[in-house]
Amino acid sequence: MRRCESVKTNFKKFVRSTLRGLCLFIFILEVSFRSCPAFSAAQDQHAIFPVFVNQVPKGEVTALIRPADILARVSDLHRAGVLGFSGQNETVRGETYVSLSSLVPFVTFEMDEEALVLRLTVQPALLPPTVMNLRPDRPPGIIYSQDTSAFFNYAVK
Prior knowledge:
alpha+beta; Ubiquitin-like (UB roll); 28% strand; 3 helices
């Protein structure tokens, strides 16, 4: 009877250690697959969205949608007027993409799934300067004379 109990105890220890080892192996395997670029690229969804920068429409942007992030093509962001940013870059099929979550706090983003629009709120430091000319334009066809002239004004009381 005593031998039977020791066999059961040894078998339980063996099963526990085997299960722990198997769980550890599965965990390591999953982590290595998740960090593998080929695995993450297979989960990416490519999309083209109209992009709004600070509520102004700025064309379209090609994006890769991931479960917790959106990667936008750098050239599209430059074309939309977002300049001088540095974030986590990734090259996919020869194109450079930047992780929008790596640009926080300078850029915040929202993907409107109903309207299928990507909305970016960008700090002014990353936008090109805006120059406003408040002077009126010269009238078209104005002629500046080189002739000598004088004007005299008087009032009689």
